[in-house]
Structure formats: C-alpha cells, structure tokens
Amino acid sequence: MVQLEVFLQTLISGILLGGLYAVIGLGMTLIMGVMKIINLAHGELMMVAMYIAFWLFSLLGVDPYVSLLVTIPALFVLGVVIQRTLISPVLKVDSILPENQVILTVGIGMILANLATMFFSSDYRSTPVSYAADAWYLSDYWRSSPIELSLSVPWTVSFGFALAITAALWGFLQHTDTGKAIRATAQDKDAALMMGINVERMTMVTFGLGAALVGAAGSLFIPMYYLYPALGGKFTLIAFVITILGGLGSTQGAIIGGIILGIFESMTATYIGMGWAPVGRFVIFVACLVFLPRGVAGLMKRS
Amino acid sequence: MRKFGRIAGVALLCLAVGTPAAMAKTLKFGIPLPLTGSKSKFGEIEKRSYEIAAEEINAAGGIRGMQIELDIQDSQGKPDIARAIVEKFIDVDKYPFVVGAYSSSCSKAVAAVAEERKVPYLVVTGSADDITQKGYKYVYRMNPSVAYYTGGLRGFLKEVVKPKTVAILYESSDFGTKGAKAMEKDAKKLGMKVVLKEKYESGAVDFKPILSQVKAKRPDVIYMVSYVMDASLLMRQIKELRIDAKLFAGGAAGFAIPEFIENAKDASEYVVTATLWSPQAPYPGAKAFAEKYKAKYGKYPSYHGAEAYSALYLMKDVLERAKDLGSDEIRDALAATDIVTAFGPVKFEAKEGYTNQNFMDTLVLQVIDGKHETIWPRKFATAEPKYPIPRWRDRR
Description:
- The structure holds 2 protein chains of 2 kinds.
- By secondary structure, chain A is an all-alpha fold.
- Chain A has helices at 2-35, 42-60, 68-92, 100-120, 138-141, 153-175, 177-187, 189-194, 199-221, 232-246, 251-271, 277-291, 295-302; strands at residues 135-137, 150-152.
- Chain A has one domain (2-302).
- Chain A has a two-stranded antiparallel sheet with strand order 1-2.
- In chain A, helix 2 (42-60) runs antiparallel to helix 3, helix 3 crosses helix 4 (100-120) and helix 7 crosses helix 9.
- The mean pLDDT of chain A is 89.
- In chain B, a hairpin with a 7-residue loop joins strand 12 (344-349) and strand 13 (357-358).
- Residues 12-23 of chain B have low confidence and may be disordered.
C-alpha cells in the first residue's frame, strides 16, 4: 500500500512536471518546424520572462500568473525583434558553416545571460507567493482513504495554464488563417511561397510565438522555483531533449515528449536516486536518437 | 597644453611618491567573498560584519597605529575565481596574510595557495573537515569543522527527541557530502538507524519523488544539508506532501539564515537547525555586535556574521602580538592565539586528526513564530523548544 502511494505520488509529480516541460518544448519545436533551426537561446528567453515576472511581483505586487498578460506579449515582441534584426539576415547569407544561425542563437543566449548578470547581478531571486506550499489532499475529500496523495496548488495551477496555452496554440494552428499559413510554411516553404503565403512574415510570427510560449513557461515556473541569470542552459537542454523526443517539429510530439520526460525523470528520482535524474534525461535522449530517430511523431504516423 | 601636461605629470609623480608613505598608515585585509551568485546572501552578511568590525577597530585607533582597509573581492562562490583572487593578493599586492572566503570549496582552494606561498590564512567559515586535516602549516581555522556542527543538535536529539530512525538528504557539494557523513556517524553514536541517505544536485525543481520515498520510510528525523534555495524548496515540498516526522533538522548554512524563513514561509515553522552562534551566545561583545548589525541592516546576523566580525578582532590580537608583519611572524602569533571573541573562544589545537583547528560548543536554533530562537543547549536558550511538533494536518 505504501509503495502504491509512492508510485502514484511520483506519477502525479511526473505528469505535472511533464506538462510544464511540454510548454517549454513547444516553443522550440514550433521554431524548429518552420525555420528548421534549433533555437539554443530558448532557455535564456525563459529567463528574461522570469525576470519580468519577478520584478512585476516584487515592485508592483503582481501575481506571477497575472504577469502572463505581460510576459507573453513582451516575449513575442522580443522574439520578433531578434528574428528580424539578427536571425533573418544571417539566414540569407551563405557561409562555410551551414548551421551558422544555430551558432548565432547560442551567442544571443550568452548575451542575454550576461546582460542579466550585469543588470540584476547573479543573485538568486524568488517570488514568495502565499500559496507556494499549499496543496489539496486526497484524505481531506475522502476521509477513509487508505493512502494519502497530495496535489500542490501552484504546480496544479501552472499545469492547468500549460494545458490551456497548449490548447489555444492548437486551436490557433488548426483554425486560423495565420495558423494554417504557418503549418503550410513548415511543410514546404517553396510551395507555400508559390501559394502566395508571406513566408518571411510567417517565420517572424513563428519565432515570436515560440518566444511567447517559453515566456509563458517562465511565468508558470517562477511561483514554485527561483531565478538566476545562468538558469537558461538547463531549460534549453530540456527543450532540446523534448524537441528530439517529440520528433523535430511536431507539436503533438512535443506535448507527449514533455510528459514522457517529466514522468521518466520523476521515476528515476524515486526508484534510482535523485542524483541520477539528469543522467536519465540523457539516457532517454540518446536512446531516442538511436531507436526512434523520428521521435514520437514518427511512431504516431506509423500506427 | 604642453605646460599643463608637464604640471599634471609632476603632480602624478608626487602622488605616486606620496602613496607609499600614506600606505604605511593603513593595513590591508585581503578577503575573497561571494558577493554575487547563489551564495551571495552569505557573502553579504559577512561583508557587512567585516565592515562593522573594521569601523570599530579604526575608531579605537586601529592595529599598531595603522587603520584597517578591507580589500574584499567577489569570488562568485567559485573556487577557481577565489584562487585567482588570492594569488593576486599574495603575488601582486604582497599581503602578508589572507582572511575569509565563504564556502568550503573556495576555502580549500585558497588554503592550497596560501600553504604553497607560505602565507598564513585564517579560515573563517569554510567547514569541510579536510581543510585542516591535510597537515597544512599556514592554515588556521576559527570555526569548527562540519563534523562538529551537529554537536549541539546531537545533545538535543539525545535528550529530547530520542529518535530511532533518520533520513538524510544532502546537496552533492563538498559541504553537503561531509555534513551527511558527519550525521551518519552521529546516528551510530545515538543508536539511530539511517533509513535513507540520498544526495541531490543543487538547483533541482522537484524534490517530491525523493520526498515520497522519505515519507514511505517514516523516519523520526529528517536531516537536510543544503544552501538556502534548496532548503526552502525542500521544506515547502515536505509541507505539500504532509510528511510528518518527529523533527525536521537542518545542518546549518541554508537553514540558519533569515532568508530561509522568508522563502519557505510557514513551511519553515518548527524546523530546527544546527548553528554555531546566536545573538544570545554568552560571549563578550556578541550581543552588542548583533544589536549594532540589526540597527544598521534591520535583522539579526547569522553565525556567518559573527565569524567574520570576530575574525577581524582575532587578527587584531594576532597582529599586535606578532614580532613584525612578516608572514612567518604572523603565523607564529596565530599559533599562540588564546582569546575569547564575540563568536566564542578561539584556540588552535591539533587533535583528532586536525591541525590548527578551533574546537567549540555549537547551538541549536528553532523557527518559532517565524523567528529563529536558540533552544539548545538549555543554558543559552531564549525559548523553550517546541516539541513535539504538530502534524501538518493540524496546523492552523
């Protein structure tokens, strides 16, 4: 019975974590799908959003979840600016390295992290919200429950927002003209161009959208975590693993990939050891590259 | 224009000649500290405390008629940077001695440089056991090593809690690993069974998987060795999972500073932590220092502050006894130290595998009504220990 409780609690943790991971991975996947580049400044964009949420909270007392209304548009604009002024010119230039845009994104990430260190110092910050350690308990609702499970308030609320954002994105891609144009661009750039789609503009919107998604993830993460300038790398890596796992550019793949990663990490932490969780992340990454090179999306197509 | 240049040149020359004479009146203390980065909270406390001590000493006439000047450099808590800073202190600035550094890993890096260059180094807060177990001749440590941090806590466990089992969670750093090992030894002495011993990588987002394992093992005591952000996350998630141990105990560092309570909020209530000092410690100047610090910065300093503050007084005593200000003379004076500072008695001894190590009593704090109170040993206590602690379900 006790072991069942441990298992279920771990599963809950894994799913909640996975849902949040999915939002982080979605932005990178979207950009990958349309522009065929990996945005390695992804985690740093999240860091920027977290700073926005942090300052809104500490200076104006704005709840991190309300700050979504600011971080999403702010990061969208930042993404568009980065795409127009930095990435787009480089995409057009022929160079010795075919992947020079990827290297460019690494540079952008470094600049963002160092700017944050310069302006905000490398101190750790947090938004101590009143509900940070609140939770719902199974035994409060079902008195005679043989096991006790808990559902953290901030984690669950963040997870809910993550689902809503994912659903909104899906609706946008599926049912709006811009969304359809983005999907067309992702499928075949030249064909889309011939059909009269403004590919240049779609690329810009996509990058903005990718940044906005990870910006949302920043606002969702800060109530239960904390913040420092060098935090980007860790989340870039997570997004990267999810993008590979999901099958480079597939949004459904990214969602499933995120949840798989979340559950896998939690299970590793419970049953192998917490120090091994980051190792587990790489194991799944390598295993995916070897056995499932097209990711979850490839698997879904086959069946 | 050229004339102006010449005048400026002469003026500069005068200044250059003038400075060494002025320099002789000041005594520089080279101190590496983490002023930015994950350990910057500790660096900030120490920097303020050094400054308070320097001000007091200077107002009272300085050391050997010289005014103290602090040369505090930011190590970011990284050993390689701390090492570079100290190499500059010794090789370029020619300081005859070095003081400080916060973390164990930085202190260790500094100790190696100091020993190699034969320059005395006073370790102020670095607590990993092996810093003073290597037989270094120029490295002296005024704080107890991490193995002794839990001395007070051990007494509290033995006489009040009487636990049978313990779970140990620790950060995979130098300090965390050594702290966990020390607890394991203590557990053996107290007849406690270690039901779980698990390390984590600092910066983890979700501790719940490992905490649900802890919950399943139902330990009497959960002992954690962490710096501040992990400490708050751990307690917050323990509250979330309603893990009801008889006692939640921290191994100093992250649990013993006010930021722990600020971040963990009500999840920090009743948590006890080992500590080396408290404002109520019965040493001359302890209370006065704590009040002065509070008046200036709004809250009481942690033990780190008292260590830094007392380190300067200790060095004052040492430098006044030294024959002259050469490195070897200072070291000889350090070795002969026997004083009581605001932090406690300091006397460097060689025993139990340590050399040049200070041994002292340690205390236990408990968070009561959102404040750290001293609860152990009884003679120093400011509040009755709150024990047994209520179950999470029954709180509020």
